[in-house]
Amino acid sequence: MHADSSASPDERRRLEQAHTFPKHWVADVLATDGGAVALRPIVPEDADRLIRFHGTLSERTRYLRYFGPYPTMSHKDVVRFTTVDHHDRVAFVMLLGGEIIAVGRYERLRNEGDGKSAEVAFVVADGHQGRGLGPILLEHLAAAAAENGLTKFVAEVLAENRNMVSVFREAGYQVSRSYEGGVLRLEFAIDPTEALVSVRNSRERAAEARSVQNVLEPRSVAVVGASSDPAKVGNAVLVNLLRGGFTGVVYPVNDEHKSVLGVRAYPTVRDIPDDVDLAIMAVPAVALDAVLDDCLAKGVKALVVVSSGFGEKSPEGRRNERALVHAAREHGMRLVGPNALGVANNDPAVSLNATLAPVLPSAGNVGFFCQSGALGIAILDEAARTRIGLSTFVSAGNRADVSGNDLLQYWDTDPATEVVLLYLESFGNPRKFSRIARRVARTKPIVAVKSGRHAVPPALAATGVEIDDSIVRALFEQSGVVQVGSISQLFDAALLFGYQPLPKGPRLAVVGNSTALSVLAADAARSEGLTVRANTDLGAQATPDEFAASVRGALASDDVDSVIAVYVPPVAVPVEPFARALKEAVEGATKPVLSTFLAAEGVPEALTVVGPDGNPARGSVPSYPNPERAALALGRAWRYAKWRSKPASPVVRPDGIDADAARQLVERWCGASPGRWLTDVESAELLACYGVHVVEFRTATTEDEAVEEAAALGYPVAVKATGELWRHRPDLAGVRLDLYSEDAVRVAYRDLAQATGDPLLQIQKMATKGIGCVIGVQDDPSFGSLVSFGLAGVISDLLGDRAYGVLPVTEAGAAELVDAPKAAPLLSGYRNGIPVDKRALVDLVQRISTLADDLPEVRELACEPVLASADGAAITDTRVRVGPEPSMIDLGPRRLR
Hints:
27 helices
């Protein structure tokens, strides 16, 4: 590989240790054309690279950047540009193949205004202009500047440099400008406004979709390691490419033979005379370094590595896998794999089968992503058997680089994909998944299987995070993802979503010729939350016309939203007339029709609506082996349709929040200590900044003080122990409640001080009696901070009866969170109880969510108990732990994981 000081993880770590820049400033990013680029702070060792970079700039580019010819860099300038303090002077370089292709920097303007402004500038190599590198540099510079206390950027550009002005505006900043002597002075705040975040997300979406497009829509493919030996992987990939009718050009790469399978071969990728978009790597891991250099020289855009022997084998393999990914990105390429089954695109304009599977399902409207290669073969076989048509397919193997999130970005804009199927063994970036899926699911159903917590292969465990199943369910529900429990259920849902419309309501009609099966269908439907409006049993002697008329009548009814048709011949009679009658009856229907037809699974030929390409098209009637599976799929489709019909709830900040005061408090506490639990007084002070008020309390260290504080608060009061072992005990041994007199307070103080051995006790005004609830924040290693809600008590804790919300929580999301626990009906007046003011609980959840979103240093928070009553919600105790800000997976400047 190239002798780049950041060309390997070991070298990258050495640089990070040798220099004082924050490690999280190092990133791999995507240009608008989908190509990967390495980004990191500049270091003195970059001097020679910087000189070479400057030498490649055209005179025009140098003139626009430096306001003059500036043909060569002096030694003094080189030292100044490469030696920065990473605080007041920060510079980033972007590298491709070890060479600088862009440089950006800022320098604090200490003598201007409040000293929180900095001058920013950047320059991009001529050959890489137009790839969106300027906005990316600006984004990362702004994030670094914000970390260092800066609030505004200033840039001076020549008035004729319109491209630079547009870069700032297209990045999402509100730019003000002034003009003097042919120079424009631009100023803009660097705070991450909603508009700025939206622009960043759009740029990320386009770049990631384009990077996947480079994988799935190549015009030329090189098979590195192509072989004539049927026992070798390189043979299988090449054979499948050729047999699949790939519309582009296939180049076998084999250094021993001039042709492979009758197709001219080349010794290396570098020797191929034409452009190469995609390279399939079927060579041993030890040979990949040289191949990567050849791919860089040829300008290959993406790699699919089907070779094994990496993270799935050993810790050393995982290290080699990380090195492979880093090397690929340093060479500007995205990588699928290693240990991948491959990728496929059924678009007739592409016809790409770059997999190890000899046969693909027919073309259709379903995009499929999975991780396991072996499982991928079984999935493709099952899809073909049930006649689920695929638009595209990706088996990511160890998922070292390209992930399900990337595919979602691609499928979001792919007109050929209407349904997305995911088989996930682990999450790489769940928080990002939630954000993307929530958007995609608004227009395209996403059906996902998340495999068991203990079934994750070692390679994927190394690149993902173990997540509690309840959190996964919450993630899927809030994102509109249809979660299923098995591959068969995945395909059951795909059949409905792929061929039938969504139900507009829960009302179902069952039409059948079998009493037993019709009853099973109705019972299963009710268990899925559907309402059975009609259950028509036609009897075993029903004719095709009667069968069709009953289905047609059900579809025409205003009281029916969907139909399950059941047909099982009682004797050996011709079934074609029944199939033809059913297909004609549902033609043009706007309501979903599912069937249990001859107990067939998939789309029977007799119920297929043939599309222009000869494959099953929308309107085909899916069949399920039994009516229970049909009802299960229909119930999931209804819940998804109901979620999709709800308007997206905006994130609204509650009134009465003083975030600046809260930030100052947290900075002071974290500055004095690397991390700790706040005192009760400090916790109450922090929450008050967000309009969350703890029931008034005082502390006392003597019996007389306790009496004085009780009198000041006003009776009745409670006396509470402050030690951790005495909080929230089921036996209430650490608290004395409903104290109405001085004598009662004295007795309570003496008892608790003696029992706990601690004279420091808390005197608190009694709150209105109510139902105890818990509102909390926990620092999840995968999602960042999560908000949780549940009812207080040992039973709820033991049963895990908690609902979780991923930040930011909307008002509608907060209301759903309060209603989500199984014990939540108690809040609505269960068994003649008095309903509580749930609006007060929703407001509390929103405020605490906003606090957690604003202050990532708040690592843990618990308000317990929150006494909910008809009069509101009163917090009687709270605990808060602060610490260094964690690495936020999906915040800040966009980067590849």
